[in-house]
Amino acid sequence: MKLETFSYLPEFSVDQRADQIRSIVARGLVVGIEYSAAPDPYDHYWTLWKLPLFDIDDAATVMIELDACRRANPGCYVKVNGYDPVRQGQVSSFIFCQPAKNA
Fold first, then answer.
1. Across the chain, which distance is largest between two alpha carbons, in Å?
2. What is the Cβ-side half-sphere exposure of residue 29, based on CA atoms within 13 angstroms?
3. Which DSSP letter does residue 90 get?
């Protein structure tokens, strides 16, 4: 399923995902984790995993929460959003993981 602007690019590797998370945290963005079993390009509302991760400056903490969301929702897409607290808007978003093809 193609959901994002750059969906024609190959999936991020584990290292590339970690780099993206480090970049979001380094820019001081607030991390929000969302998931959806059946995403639809016309439905922009996914389920929020816990509360946004305010005041988190450690990418490892974000990765732990992403893995927890993935394990709790194995048949779902998991998305990471970065919110700018100054501009008060979303400035970064990418699919962290997809369900297995045979799930």
1. 42
2. 24
3. E
Distance CA 75, CA 62 (A): 20
* pLDDT (0 to 100) of residue 51: 94
Could you say which DSSP state residue 51 is in? S
In DSSP notation, 45-85 reads --EE-SS-BTT---HHHHHHHHHHHHHH-TTSEEEEEEEET
Amino acid at residue number 82: G
The pTM of this model reads: 0.85
What per-residue string of b and e applies to 74-90 under the rule 16 or more CB within 10 Å gives b? eebbbbbbbbeeeeeee
Q: Residue 30: CB partners within 8 Å, gap ≥ 6?
A: 52, 53, 54, 82, 83, 84, 85
